[in-house]
Amino acid sequence: MPSDSKITNFAEGPMPGFGFAQPVTADAVSAPKPRGEDFHAAHRSRLCTRFLQGGAAALPDYELLELVLFRAISRRDVKPIAHRLMNEFGDFNSVVAAPLERLVELKGVGRAVALELKVIEAAAHRMARARVIGKPVLSSWDALLDYCKTALSHQPLEQFRILFLDRKNILIADEEQQRGTVDHVPVYPREVVKRALTLNASALILVHNHPSGDPTPSDADIAMTSRISEAASTLGITLHDHLVIGKGRDFSFRGNGLL
Known about the structure:
elongated
């Protein structure tokens, strides 16, 4: 990248929480390797510059996680904590979505680190939700799937959510109705329909996750969906679909002929 680029100039200045040093130049390659705090500052500077120049694709998961940790932990080597988190949870998404109580159990992960990770998670959910709320859902199906995966694919317990749509199939509300165990969540068709009437919704999309990672619906899932569909239909409410979110895969009841 040219030396007078905006990104390089930006990297030369200090950035709170990231510990930018001077940008790495050709002369610095042959310089003696820095020690202690100087080494950590140089490492942080290199990571930040690579991210600013190449975006998230320029960094593997553990280095992207280091960038997050820089803000919570200043003047310390965060690489061991990043690797510890990755080893425990598997990937960046799973680390960010990990339950708070499990995060703080890990050595080196205190309140500041846990808070930073939960803020990242909340921001991801907020951004994904903004792409679908108030928009025609059926013509924004890919965005809807992305939103559901962001919210549910890494959750450790089953959650049952309902997306409520108006007569133009615009998403007017997304609500978590129940939260269960690792393999079961209780759902009451009467409560689902009652809530739809309260919101004056004309259509529904059901969504729940399978923490096991396999989105194949159980017999109980199929029976529950059928009961909700019948109850909703009686009151003129359409059940568009029931989505089961796994890890890396999803299952559509309508797409598989179950609705």
